[in-house]
Amino acid sequence: MDHKINDSTLKATLLAMGSALIITIILLIFSSNNPLQSIVFFFTGPFSNTYNFGNMLNKAGLLIFAGLGMSIAFRSGMFNLGGEGQVYAGATAAVLVSINVNFPNRYIGIISAVIIGIISGALIAGFSGWLKKQWNTDELISSFLLSGIIIHFTDYLISGPFKDNSSFLNSTVKIPTILFIKQFLDTSHFNISFFIAVIFTFLAFIFLFKTSMGYEIRLSGLNRKFAEYGGLPINRHLIIPMLISGGMYGAMGSFASMGSYHMGIKGFTQGFGWNGIAVALIAGNNPAFVIPAALIFAYLDAGTQVAMIHSDLSFEFGNLIKAVIFFLITAKKLNLKKEYLYD
Amino acid sequence: MNKHLLTMHNITKTFPGNGVKAVDCAELQVGTGEIHSIIGENGAGKSTLMHILAGEIIPDTGNIIISNRNIELSTPSIALKNGIAMLHQHLKLIPELTVLENIILGVEPSTKAGTLNSKDALNKINKLCKEFDIFVDPKKLVKNLTSDKKQITALLSILYHNIKIIILDEPTTFFNEIKADTVHKVIKKLQNMGKSIIIITHKLKEAIEISDSITVMKSGRTIANLNSSETDINHLSSLILDGNSKIKSNKPDIQKGSVLLEFKNITYSQGAVNYLDINFHIKKYETLVVTGIRENGLEILEQILAGNIQKTTGDIIYKNTTTGNKIFSLRKIGAGYIPSDRIKKGTSIKSSITDNIILLKYKFFSKWGIMDSKKINGFVSKLIDEFGIIGSGNQLISTLSGGNIQRVMIAREIDANPELFIFAEPSKGLDILSKQMIYNKINHLKKKGSGILIISSDIDEAIKIADRVLILHNGKEAATLINKNLNRVEIGKIMLGLNK
Amino acid sequence: MISSVLFMSTPILLAAIGGLLTELAGVLNIALEGLMLIGAFSAILITKFTGSMFLGTLGASLAGMSLAYIFGFITLRFKANIFITGLAANLFAVGITNYLSSIIFGTKGVISLLNYSQLLHIAGNNIFTYIGLFITGLSLWIIYKTVFGLRIRASGFDISILKIKGIDSYNIQMKAILISGALSGLGGAVLALNIGAYVPNMIAGRGWIALVVIYLGRKHPVGILIASIFFAATEYISNIAQGFFQIPSDILLGFPYLITFIAMVIYSILNTRLNNGR
After folding, report:
1. Pick from A115-119, B365-369, C93-97: least confident
2. Domain count of chain C?
3. Closest-CA residue to C200 (of C46, C93, C119, C117)
4. Which residues in A have their CB inside 8 Å of a CB on B?
5. Is ipTM over 0.90?
């Protein structure tokens, strides 16, 4: 089975991560009054107290969901660029359900809200897959555009009809306290969703490598001609991987709102969708490596945030690091010689 | 004649993967203004040798000398600069560009501002057309051309350059007599201009009539170099077809089975050109080999069977049910099939042996959608043993040798025990041991009651395993013979059109 | 009204013409959005420091080209996945503009030009409208009448044929990418200089719209011009509608995405029908 990572992938991953790290340090040096201290904060910050550490783990847990979904989509050869909108929609749907429905008890309430979040994300992405199947509409562009529509519509919901007018934040009212997913580790956001993410990782691995549908998805993504030749149902796998990746983004969103923020905040996603892609790529689209990839990514993110307090770095600085990773992570040929191959 | 314009000396090329020498110490000499034909069976190494000359394949050993200069032809553009160009069978044209644009690409006449000087180009092309008495509208898009006009476009794009040596790969394969005549006139004209022309051809009559000298290739080696005035068709065909006469004709089985598949008056044509015209049936308990020159209909037949293209006329009938206007879909009827394109289609080379081998059976090993790894591993190791695959289940196909990849495919298809089994070019690029194993497996499958259809350009193979042999000549069914005391010369002459 | 629609179409038109060259050359360019963003930021940055809008515009093009070069180099030389490097270019643009903005101006918000003067108008039309139309015409000439254009169209089909003809496809594709960087940067500059300020998120999906416009315009400069004007007209109408119906600004911001999405789906439906008809 091809769930082992090969040499050139590993090389590209290390190169991408190493470059990201170096650039981070260079930027810290340039933008901090006390570079050495910033760098120390960057590396040790996430471990300096339980609050930082808990938040980092929580972030990693959320990233795991997104990374798993994208791994499955990438494996099938589909591109879902609508993660931002799907996370946002999932989070907001879960919040709106929590606010507006009276649940008999907290477990049914939390579970229903999360499932609604997952379904919202799944349907949005699945729609792009369906368009692809029906009319060969490019899913890469359609998922992005759809996400743009969803983001602005959700913005409107949060700052319009569902806005909490008593709050200075641009947000909805808080969900009922009884529906909060319990947080441990002091005041950090860390909660049970991290462990659910770990279970999902296991499930995703089984799905991809041990089920017949996973088999069909992997082979259709690797070699469509071969899958067609073998009579595999390739058209079905334009929709299912999109549903899964959208659903995972939805899970990321609903766990973020139910477990961390407890309300719908305008524009809270700030790159969550792109982070999912980054994690999947660092993991080589392999669920087995998604957990370490998410941890590394969350660590970079947390380090930047801690260091940020001690320098002039802005929050979106994380985009630069992501960009460097994206630029290099899929590089196949790392030598600079011109090549003429005839094969 | 100056014998020393081009010398290819001691050229050898082994393709990685199967270890078979495609070209083996080949020698070739062509003089200025000479027309030189290269003949031989499919797989004799003609095309590989010419691709080496055109800079498209780099040989393992050997020298290429042009005008007494040793040169290294590492890319097609270097070959072009040295005055060598090849007209491919699969034309290298860009359909979205016009004829003119295709012709001038790479040597565009331009003004100082970088503007295309279409007028100059047009004049030059018109002049060439007049000179060679050919015609194509330079302003038409290539995708809107008929196939012979495309051929003319490709030819013009070579003539447009200042070329010394022109390689033509089967220039008249799909042409009728009149159009072939046009091509011959062009070739003679080129000769008069002092160009050297090398022709790869299967048509022995053509080779003798048009060329000054002929090189015969067999199993990668150049076995004879003859003056065409000193030879004749019988001599040439015996050189080509000469081989192991000890190959025993298969004792044909009595055909006791019912008819499985029937191709009734199937034709395939594009425009005025007819590529295939065939009639056959396959019964259970028998092996039918369709043989001929690969380009003369075998490829098209495979494409129709694979469902990649639609027949033009006729009826495909499987077990009394006609497919009608639908495309023939062999997996739907549970047929086994190994395509000639093993790497892109027959395998997923970035996947493991296991993933490749369970393609037809993965559902069988699944319960509620979960695949049973234990059963799968047992199944895979059983097949690895049975078919002598060297490798383990989780090894990637890309790390295997050609013979091993072949075995993986055969294991997969034969184990599924298909009623109808279609196999294209079974022994292409295989060593003797693998070949024998494959033949045994095919025979075994047949004895269990399957109908076997083999598409093969290898005559020896046909004689070895067929119960009946269908021979194509120029895409048309030339004969269907029961494989009793058949020999390669007899079949070879029919496929070359020499039996009359 | 016509002149404002024409002007509003200019940024998309410029980016789409640049994207057309890469598309024809066989390079899918999803980096247009980022290239425009970096152009918008550079235009304001340089204009602010030099006081010259001309230099600002020039600088925007150069900045677009620089990012395009990184994108092209990594994609073509390292054979990296073009979708992912395109994403990288977009994220890089967001990151670097924010970073420089906070370092140089101490804000990641709006950066305005202090002594801002209106853009030059000739015969009632903005100078950039003319530039956009001129570049469209120029692209028509380049694509169909020059050696470079021929080679671009050829490399989009099959670069192995270019190799046989001795043409360096890397060179051709790289040049196309650089031009798309320059034109997208210019498009971003038009947006920013028009309002005399750089606003984060000011590109608002125009790079993606430009990408869709290339397909809707059937990969031809004239078609692209028409499609760009169509999008500008819908933007114009929605702006007017905003005044009448008090549409919430969030909904309004989503409007371009909605229109583009619908146009894209209709296009693919028609395309499928057309192909099935054959």
Report:
1. B365-369
2. 1
3. C93
4. 1-2, 4, 206, 210-213, 215, 218-219, 222-223, 225-227, 229-232, 340, 342
5. no
